[in-house]
User: Fold this.
Amino acid sequence: MNTRPEQMETLSKAAYKDFESRMVAHLQEFFPNECDALGEDEVRDEIKYGVRRSKVYGFESEQDVCRYIDLMFAFGSNFDADPDLKDLREVLDDKSSDNPGDRMDRLYEAAMYILDTRGAGKS
Assistant:
């Protein structure tokens, strides 16, 4: 049985909507203040933005995309362009490994170090 392109698109949209809904619940659990301030529609917009931005850096697995969006909520939507977070940008730009998961692990480690030493919060 062959799957037609329009069937694949429908399946893909359903999978994305499921991911987005699970991501909203995740963010509401771990970033309740930010989610309350934004409202659900803007949280969903931020998730869409995070999915697009994460792909720029080669992150496509659900886990890596989720972690990228977590970093957006911890440091701000454009943390990847923040001059005060150059350590994170260096990890994002480091292409020495072909494995995006390894790079995400290093990114998360650098982010946790920043949060531990500077304190959390958006600028």
About this structure: The first helix runs from residue 5 to 30. Helices lie at 5-30, 32-38, 40-56, 62-75, 86-93, 100-118. Residues 63 and 78 are 20 Å apart (CA to CA).
